[in-house]
Every structure is written in structure tokens, then in C-alpha cells.
Amino acid sequence: MYKYDVKYSLVIPCYNESENLPVLVDRCSLLLKNRKDIEVLLIDNGSTDNTHIVLKSLLKNIGKKNLRSMRIDINKGYGFGIISGLKECHGEVIGWTHADLQTDPMDFINAISFFEKIKDSGKVFVKGSRKNRSFKDVIFTWGMSLFEWLILGTYMHDINAQPTVFTRNFFASLGNLPKDFSLDLFIFNEAVNNSYKIQRFPVIFELRLKGKGHNETFLSKLKYSYKTILFSIGLRQHLKNLSK
Q: Of 3.40.50.960, 3.40.50.300, 3.40.50.2300, 3.90.550.10, which CATH number belongs to 2-243?
């Protein structure tokens, strides 16, 4: 079966992304061209539009064994969709990116190159670093990085940049993974605190192709920040308890 050829797995959660799926599937097909060692798992994360119908049709026409989908009937959070996909995929190096095409699935090639080059790749954690963003968004990102450094004592820049890639062994070592948008922060923080070699590379951050994201308006950014603050305070207390 194809799964024995797979070394690298990319999970892409899709929530009400039916309009973006044709281009997304095309980009994923290009990613997989001449690469039998990569698989892409598209997660229909409890979509309420016709994502599952569009996805099923597109994948049937593509006919690639290493480009497949998984359906979650009820949306239980961004993190839940990703975690479910990471558990289902076959690679020893795994990770995720977003379905909105603000970052290209092809960036995964650059991410896995770090694991191909470094001998001790088991202690490597890779994240993109977003370029071509508005000044307002850059300032917001720096502010969040500063806040997390003050709360957690860990410096993490551009926490929500994609793709995010690491080994299956690292993923298996993690417990109590958050099921919401705090997943990026939690895993990044764990990698830094466990002395993983953090590798960054530039990714071009484009405008969303179609539809609206969860964090595009100023009000949505404030709501996200508030939730992140609460999660960070709780995480700090949890880490303190573990150190006692």
C-alpha cells in the first residue's frame, strides 16, 4: 500500500472552504508531483457548506492515493481537526498548513528540506515566517510575541505562521493538546521548552482567495487575543505545577 512509501504528511483543515477547494486541490497535486514520499490529508472539519461534496468530487477526479480527505461530522475546533488528521496520517515527519491559500501548500517542500539535511532531525521544529503582510498585522504579531514572552518566558515570533512541521515522535510526546486556535501556541512553546532546534524560513503571505477567515477584522483579532491571553495564563500555571 502507498502508506509504506510515505515519509512526510501534511494535514490541511478545511472549514467551509468549498470556494477555495478547486485551487487548493490543484496546488496539493502540484506538491505531490513526482513525490511518492509525501501525502496530503484534507480535513473537512465539520463544514456546514458543501465542502464535503466538492472535496469528494475533486479527489475522485484527481485519483491520487496520497491525496485524500477525512470528514469530521461536527466542528469541535480548529485544533481538534488538525489533531485528528495528525493521528490519521502515516508520515514520520508531520505538520499542517491552512486551506485559505494565504500560504501555499508548496511551502511544505521547504519545510521538510530541513529534516532531509539535518542528521539529528528528531530535534527539529520548523515554522514558516510570514512576509508581505500589512504594517498593522506585523505590529499586532510583534505585540503578541512580546506578550507571550512576558507571560510564558518563551520568545516565539509569528506564532501562527504556517506551515508547522515536526516529527511524529514529538507529537506523540505531547499531552492535553488544546482543541482550539491555541494549538499553534501550545506546540511552539513545547518545542522551545524542550530545546528543539527551531528552523524558520520565509513564506509569502497572500490575501485570502475567497471567503472570510476567523481573524481578519480588528474585532476578531481582539477576541482572539483575549482568548490567547486566558490560555497563556492557564498554561503558565500548568507549567509551574509541573515544575514543583
A: 3.90.550.10
